[in-house]
User: What shape does this take?
Amino acid sequence: MRIERFFISFFEKTTCTEYYIEHKEDKKHEIYGDGTGKNGDCSEDCIAFYAYYRSKDNLNMWYCNYPKDRKDTIWTCNK
Assistant: This one.
């Protein structure tokens, strides 16, 4: 399976987000809450969110397209 898109979020360390630091076994996406009320919704502690997609021309190049289509890049190395 080849990944075509990935997302990264940066969170302030708060009581809510600290739970996920201490409980690494919980799914990372649940930091936003899972709708059951069991997990806290820490979305207010999010400082930044970025979305990257893989270039169709160069599979080792990733481009940022959110929050703006900035064309920031990440280069992945083949080993």
